[in-house]
Amino acid sequence: MSHTVLVCDDAIFMRTMITDILTQAGYEVVGEAETGAQAVEKYRQLKPDLVTMDIVMPDMGGIEAVREICKKNPEAKILMCSAMGQQALVVEAIQAGAKDFVVKPFQPSRVLEAVQRLLG
Amino acid sequence: MDLARYTKLFLSDSRDHLQRCNELLLEWERNPGAAAPVAELFRAFHSIKGSASALSLAPIAELSHAGEQMLAAIRDGALSGTPEVLDVLFRAVDGLTDGVEAVAKREAPEVNRALLDQLHELAPIPLERTGELPLPERRLQERPRVSGPVAQPAGRQVRVELERLDALMNDVGELVVARNRLAAIADREIGSELERVSGRISGLVSGLQTGVLRARMAPVGEVFDRFPRPVRDLARSLGKEIRLELLGGEIELDRSVLDGLTDPLMHLIRNAADHGLETPAERVAAGKGREGTIRLRAERARDGVIVTLADDGRGIDRAGVHRRAIERGLYDAEAPMPDATGLLRLLSHPGFTTRQEVTTVSGRGVGIDAVLTRIRAQGGRMELKTALGRGTTFLLHLPVTRAIVRALVVGVAEQRYAIPFGLLAEAAVHNAAEAEVTLRGEPLLTVDLRTLLGAAGDARGRRPAVVLDIGGRRTALTVDALLGQQDVVVERFAAPIGLPPWVGGATILPDGAPALILDPAGLF
User: Fold this and answer.
1) Secondary structure of residue B135 in the 3-state scheme
2) Across the interface, do B131 and A89 touch by the CB < 8 Å criterion?
3) Which among A10, B443, B454, B460 has most CB atoms closer than 10 A?
4) Nearest residue to B305 (alpha-carbon basis) of B246, B384, B249, B371
5) Using CB atoms, which residue from B6, B47, B127 is nearest to A85?
6) Are A68 and A98 in contact (CB under 8 A)?
7) Which residues of chain A lie closer than 8 angstroms to B45, CB-CB?
8) Which residues of A touch B54 (CB under 8 A)?
9) Closest alpha carbon within chain A to B141
10) Domain limits, chain B
11) Touching check for A17 and chain B: CB below 8 Å?
């Protein structure tokens, strides 16, 4: 059975791109979220194997969403997607419970590498 | 990577973001004391940066990054939202818009070094500090607008390209024509199975037609919302204080009508700002408030939508226009002063102007002719009201949709013509012995379609006439026969030069014969 993924990003552009990369590699994107609050809610509903999380999102940012998700499931596998120049925030996200990060713009190979590593 | 698909996403996304940025910046400039919408602006710039860099559009990515840095500096208190800073942000939005539109035209976006330098100069932040920290969201739910409510989408939505809806609309148009032909055949066999099936198909096609038309509708607010920014810029460059009021933005129009509305409205707004509204000093001297108002309002009307653009400026100098028109030989010096309709006719004379000097804002002349042509092309018409010292109002009467209209089919000299229902008031009888149709004791301005078309033969006795309501004025059009009502599909065609203004389009009648659609507003 393929692994399930929840893609969280406020830009439809990025969601489409990440979904394409993952789907082509055989993962199943089971849901998308546009805000941090949606990410938390959909995580609870869908219980995906992995979450890709943008940092800048309206209505609760990505870091806070990571904190919320990890409060309920410290084992949650969350991959942060950050823009260049957000190193400080990536550190904060990892401290909040995220397991790894990739930097936009994405290299598909780099994204898949990180996903495979997280899913073991 | 499917580049075309991503580029499309990038374009539609970025345009939405930039539109929103303009709204937010305007709101911010208007209420400098209120909570600055830095977080939302930041996200918009950030989002554009992300997709631009994914598409290797370096100039756009760089500019949005610089804007983002500046917003981060404001958020962190290192910079405050001074008019200068806001101005640079406005220009960054403009720069990004240029870049995005260049991409839309398959051109390479250009780097605006001067603007980048200015952004860097105002917000000199070391790179490692440019990261964002989500601000507490103060204004996520309330989407501020300049004034008045504008429809917010409700429920789940899908984005559909207009071309797809156009294709669907074309098919439905053909289907309506075929349905009408089928109904005409079935009518010969009343009570037959054919008639029953035809009736059923008629109902279904009507439903489909309504559905497709509804899917093409979009709120006028989408067009209205483009104006606050240019109005602000106009006010600045003209040294005037202008308030723009937007009302009725939730009213819906067909996408194609809506798209044809932006340019004419922008033109009229420029006119209002440049010619209509006075300078603050002039206004004070005239006993008015310093700030002039331009009010843009959409309202539903009997058979369409009326968009009014009103300013509270100096009004049109009727005597001045009259004088100029006589000088230019456009108006008979003996004739009485023109009324509002006559005034509009004079103003819409190509290149007509009452001004000697040319301004950079609206160029030479008022260009009402261009506006009128565009509005007519949308199947609409225009009215003017003006009062010296109190202001000028343009009323644009627009069809809700231009693709399919309900029309009355009339016959004149073996030919059939369709008259859209929008202007019809009632039917009357014209006695050939009299020059005019008289309705309830009142003589009406009457035009005989037969004479107008130069049809051979003599018209005698009593013939039917169609009474029209054009801008509140009742007029009559005499025809040979009233042949019934019909949903006609307006076929667009490139109008040959010299086509009279009362030809509004063409259509195919149920029996397959072509017919012209009349635009009676062009007759009187």
Assistant:
1) coil
2) yes
3) A10
4) B249
5) B127
6) no
7) none
8) 13-14, 17, 104-106
9) A59
10) 3-129, 162-216, 220-398, 404-522
11) yes
Q: Say if the Cβ atoms of A105 and B53 lie within 8 Å.
A: yes
Comparing B14 with B147, which gets the higher pLDDT?
B14
Burial class (CB in 10 A: 0-12, 13-18, 19+), B419: buried
CB B95 within 8 A of CB B109: no
Please determine, for residue B364, whether its predicted confidence score (pLDDT) is greater than 50: no
* Averaged pLDDT for residues B210-217: 84
pLDDT tens digit sequence for B99-133: 999 999 888 888 888 888 888 888 765 444 334 33
Scanning every residue of chain A, which has its alpha carbon at the shortest distance from the alpha carbon of B138? A59
Across the interface, do B42 and A56 touch by the CB < 8 Å criterion? yes
Topology, domain B404-522: SH3 type barrels. (2.30.30)
Picking from B9, B39, B50, the nearest residue to A104 by CB comes out as B50
Largest CA distance in chain A: 37
Q: pLDDT tier at B356 (50, 70, 90 boundaries)?
A: very low
* B65 contacts on A by Cβ (under 8 Å): 85
What Å distances lie between residue A38 and A58, A60, A94, B277, CA to CA?
10, 9, 20, 48
Q: What is the mean pLDDT of residues A98-120?
A: 86
- Under an 8 Å CB criterion, which residues of B touch A? 1-2, 5-6, 9-10, 13, 39-40, 42-43, 46-47, 49-51, 53-54, 56, 65, 127-134, 137, 140
Domain B162-216 -> CATH class: mainly alpha
- Nearest 5 degrees, angle CA B56-CA B61-CA B62? 120
Dump pLDDT digits (tens) for B464-511: 999 887 766 788 999 998 988 887 877 656 556 667 777 877 888 877
ipTM: 0.75
Domains of chain A, start order: 4-119 (3.40.50.2300)
Q: Report domain B3-129's class.
A: mainly alpha
Identify all chain B residues contacting A107, using CB atoms and an 8 Å cutoff: none
pLDDT given for residue B431 in this prediction: 84
User: pLDDT at position B360, please?
Assistant: 45
Judging contacts by C-beta atoms under 8 Å, the chain A residues touching residue B6 are 13, 16-17
Helix axes of B38-54 and B83-104: crossing angle, nearest 10 degrees: 30
- Chain A CA closest to residue B49: A83
Q: What is the residue-averaged pLDDT of chain B? A: 81
pLDDT of residue B287: 93
What does the pLDDT look like over A23-69, one tens digit per residue?
Answer: 989 999 999 999 999 999 999 999 999 999 999 888 888 999 999 99
Contact (Cβ atoms closer than 8 angstroms) between residue B420 and residue B504: yes
Q: Do B47 and A87 touch (CB under 8 A)?
A: no
B431 contacts: CB under 8 Å, gap ≥ 6: B461, B462
Closest CA to B453 of B380, B511, B523: B523
Give the nearest chain A residue to B44 (CA atoms): A11
Residue of chain A minimizing CA distance to B131: A86
Q: Which CATH number fits domain B220-398: 3.40.50.720, 3.30.565.10, 3.40.50.1000, 3.40.50.11260?
A: 3.30.565.10
